[in-house]
Amino acid sequence: DAGITQSPRYKITETGRQVTLMCHQTWSHSYMFWYRQDLGHGLRLIYYSAAADITDKGEVPDGYVVSRSKTENFPLTLESATRSQTSVYFCASSWTGYYGYTFGSGTRLTVV
Amino acid sequence: DQQVKQNSPSLSVQEGRISILNCDYTNSMFDYFLWYKKYPAEGPTFLISISSIKDKNEDGRFTVFLNKSAKHLSLHIVPSQPGDSAVYFCAASATSGSRLTFGEGTQLTVNP
Prior knowledge:
The complex is a heterodimer. Chain A is mainly beta. In chain A, strands 2, 4, 5, 6, 9, 10 and 11 form a seven-stranded mixed sheet that branches. Chain A has a four-stranded antiparallel sheet with strand order 1-3-8-7, with no helix packed on it. Chain B is globular, with a radius of gyration of 13 Å. Chains A and B meet through strand 4, strand 5 and strand 10 of A and strand 5 and strand 10 of B.
């Protein structure tokens, strides 16, 4: 199916565990982004990628790792999950960096 | 440093009336502005945008106004409908850049 998909939709994990959130897009968009949504903070950029093998930090990168070996995939890894990383995570993709973003449906992550 | 700010966390209006959502920004490099709409359990979807070379852009019931001197933009919805009830995010970017910066969001409730 064409589009941008995130998996899993819901995840509960324990403090200290490593967890990976997946993002896959079928348009061959150059840019991909990871945002987290928290009440009172809106959407904050964690990491973004302008092309395969090119990634850069956003506003809140600490505790997260990304990679982009293929254009269509942009996984986000929490190396050692903390309760403050409980959030809803959205992946997005775009042809440009400044507009035209399409978002996935999100992953709700709870760290207990 | 919140570069895009939506000062009203919530707004409630009657069906058929006008909804006005406001957004302020601080970064003078921003020259492209967008509004996204988000329903529960879904990702944000693009609604309308405006370039800094314009001061108004209309799309059906939705109009965005930009006041560059005040670094302020607003979204007008006329007439408001119950299906417009959602969280609205203001976003800004520099066309020379590679990321969108979002505000905190405003929860709009349109009462029948």
